[in-house]
Specification:
The protein has five helices and six strands, in the order H-H-E-E-E-H-E-H-E-E-H. The protein has helices at residues 29-37, 40-49, 111-117, 131-141, 162-169; strands at residues 52-55, 95-96, 103-107, 126-129, 145-150, 158-160. The protein has a four-stranded mixed sheet. A two-stranded antiparallel ribbon has the order 1-4. A hairpin with a 6-residue loop joins strand 2 (95-96) and strand 3. The termini are far apart.
């Protein structure tokens, strides 16, 4: 009997997440379960080995897009490739507190949990970040991000300071 031989090509754990492997979903079941258990170690593990849903900054394309008129556009997820890791020009949507230059990064276990936070946003878009993308973003913006929240609209919200999150990402 012949035993199967492992592939001679090593698998790089830092290889970007292939959106085709996600079956069109914007969800991390492992992060969702870790948040439900309120288990910080499991959250860190999920972030290192799966994806996290990150709000995408959507800028108005022209002056008419800035008025208060509601549009019939359905919320969208992802960019033109609908779910790939962010393109070079994509920006993370962060949230600020009044009278401060500090920002809060909101991360989500699914697009549905983000939608619960911004249900009336007609231009809701998200991106999937893997551990490397999240780490790069945090390192680049560590001086302005004061807090990170997961699934802030509930039901299993958790928070972390950005330095601790960087350590957890390895």
């Amino acid at each position: 009997m012949n035993a199967a031989t492992p592939s001679s090509e090593p698998t790089d754990p830092r290889e970007p997440v292939d959106p085709d492997d996600r079956n069109g979903t914007f969800r991390s079941e492992s992060l969702e379960l870790a948040l439900a258990a309120q288990d910080a170690a499991a959250v860190a593990f999920a972030l290192r080995h799966d994806v996290v849903v990150v709000p995408k900054l959507v800028l108005p394309t022209d002056a008419s897009a800035t008025n208060d008129t509601a549009t019939d556009a359905a919320p969208s997820t992802g960019g033109p490739d609908d779910g790939a890791l962010p393109d070079e020009g994509d920006q993370v949507r962060v949230f600020g507190r009044e009278n401060t230059d500090k920002r809060i990064l909101l991360l989500f276990s699914s697009d549905d949990t983000y939608a619960a936070m911004v249900p009336d946003d007609p231009n809701r878009q998200v991106m999937l970040y893997d551990a490397l993308s999240l780490r790069a973003f945090l390192e680049a913006h560590l001086d302005v991000i004061e807090q990170v929240f997961f699934d802030i609209a509930g039901p299993h919200t958790m928070a972390a300071n950005p330095e601790d999150l960087l350590k957890a990402l390895g």
